[in-house]
Amino acid sequence: MVAALALALAWGRDLPGFAAAVVGLCLLGAVLSAVHHAEVVAHRVGEPFGSLVLAVAVTVIEVGLIVTLMAGGGDKVSTYARDTVFAAVMITCNGIVGLSVLVAAVRNRVAVFNAEGSGGALATVCTLATMTLVLPTFTTSRPGPEFSTAQLAFAAVASLCLYGVFVAVQTVRHRDYFLPVPRDGHDSEDEHAAPPTVPQTWWSVGLLLLALVAVVGNAKLVSPTIEDGVESAGLPNAVVGVVIALMVLLPETLAAVRAARRDRMQTSLNLAYGSAIASIGLTIPAIALATVWLSGPLVLGLGPVHMVLLVLTAAVSALTVVPGRATLLQGGVHLAIFAAFVFLSFSP
């Protein structure tokens, strides 16, 4: 509530340093609130629907944030969609997965999950990322790393269809592939708790949406301060997309880590890979539609350094997911790749 009030009072204003700091604190409070209410909803509807609710809700609002930032036009915003989506893929597939594996392995020595569901989700992430972020670098219809209108339309439709197939498989056809793997002696404490009532669930749904709006809205309020800081420090413009993605994905990160601590590693992977799939599968179609009224180029193709990181992420993720078990080593490797991404974003 406080974060939403801060958003309403500060919207449309130029924030001085102190006000931006206050909004940042409200942003952190909204993130914690979103995680709590997402867990309430997840406990009521069960997995994998709970993970899907949080991933889709955050991504839908993230799309609105990207479109709003790009509405200003200019060459500087032409790469916002690419930078934010790629940052989301790196954060989810390396940052969230690595941290979750690390937390689960520290507590239980080995993190256990379902290889079938996680492998299918990873394959979907890799396919979507390649079609939308790698292919534009090599197509020849337009100069530069851009899709032509027809190519962008195809990528948007293909992304949306693939996302729809994934959701159908996750929630209906093979739902059991995305459920936490039970282990003797490691029952989760929330499995024995009474589920919330229907009124409590709907109340949490409303507060979750309010918290997510506050998260992304406050992130937009502090983004000019971030842009000014990036520009004054002489850092690459891509850093803005990285910082925005980090702020927007905080709810998923905290929820995934808390699930890993409860020995529900599959829930953590559902959140991580589901967020990556939603980020691409919903953002690219929305941006493609928005290009009808947005001016300026839309740069989607990745550079050589980021393509190397994407290939490395795909290879390491496959080796992590296929056995259905992971240790501290796999968590450390993913976090090392994530650290390399962050460092090279600031120092390309």
Characterization of this structure:
By secondary structure, the chain is mainly α. It has a single domain, classed as Up-down Bundle (A middle domain of Talin 1). The chain is built from twelve helices and two strands, in the order H-H-H-H-E-H-H-H-H-H-H-H-E-H. It has helices at 2-10, 17-45, 49-70, 80-108, 115-138, 149-173, 198-232, 238-248, 250-261, 265-290, 304-321, 328-346, and strands spanning 111-112, 325-326. The chain has a two-stranded antiparallel sheet. Helix 2 (17-45) packs across helix 9 and helix 11 packs antiparallel against helix 12 (328-346). The radius of gyration is 19 Å and the shape is globular.
Compose a concise summary of this entry.
InterPro entries: Alkaline_pH_Ca-Antiporter, NaCa_Exmemb, NCX_ion-bd_dom_sf. This protein is 74% helix and 1% strand.
